[in-house]
Design a protein that fits this description.
Length: about 230
């Protein structure tokens, strides 16, 4: 397993009490598979993703990323783990308006210490993988919403993560563009052998994913292998 959440409980202050966002959640995601976590707004989907990304520390339970248990890691160690093992695609692409598509990726590659030539080569390879090589020199305002989201996906894959976490990637897209993005995520998950978790409130595009789990009121229902979606 590349991503393993075991017995995760997460609470937040709520006046004099505590609000339970996640209630003993357990989830195993093997490499090369995409698990969609569906559920209504406020059900705990975003909290689950934040815990899996090591951005939030749970009250109880363990998170293991590519064999590394994150319990007790320092802030710096968690940052290093995210940088090298976890790719995150946020709901909004968050692209820098002054940079072209290829420059968005080159910047991240240079931060990671790659030479200019290696950075551009890796960036162009990924843009080609998401079908955007012809748009490499375009800035965000020159790209459609679906194209901007594909740049964000390419950026998340830059450091060859073993875990890919995706937050509502189709929420701002129409049905056709949303389907294209979901098909792309499924294909890249299998090609790049990532353990991918995608959270969404919309099941309409999920026919091609490997597994659909459902979260409600902080509790996660995960189908047994071969049993189909919940």
């Amino acid at each position: 397993m590349s991503l393993n959440l075991t017995g995760i409980t997460l609470t937040y202050p709520d006046g004099d009490a505590r609000l339970t966002a996640l209630d003993e959640v357990t989830l195993d995601v093997p490499r090369g598979t995409l698990t969609a976590v569906a559920g209504p707004s406020g059900s705990g989907k975003s909290s689950l993703l934040a815990v899996a990304a090591t951005l939030v520390t749970p009250d109880a339970g363990t998170v293991t990323v590519d064999g590394t248990c994150t319990t007790g890691l320092t802030r710096r160690a968690r940052t290093d783990l995210r940088r090298h093992a976890i790719g995150i695609v946020f709901q909004q692409p968050n692209l820098l308006p002054s940079l072209t598509a290829v420059e968005q990726l080159q910047l991240m590659a240079r931060i990671d210490g790659r030479s200019p030539g290696a950075a551009r080569g890796r960036a162009m390879d990924l843009l080609d993988a998401v079908g955007l090589a012809p748009q490499a020199e375009r800035r965000p305002h020159q790209l459609s919403g679906g194209q901007r989201q594909r740049v964000a996906i390419a950026r998340a894959l830059l450091n060859e993560p073993t875990v890919l976490l995706v937050d509502e990637p189709t929420s701002a897209l129409d049905r056709e563009r949303g389907a294209v993005v979901l098909d792309l995520l499924v294909r890249l998950t299998h090609q790049q052998a990532t353990a991918t978790v995608l959270v969404t409130h919309d099941r309409s595009h999920l026919t091609a994913v490997d597994r659909i789990a459902e979260v409600r009121d902080g509790r996660l229902r995960v189908p047994e292998p071969g049993s189909g979606p919940v």
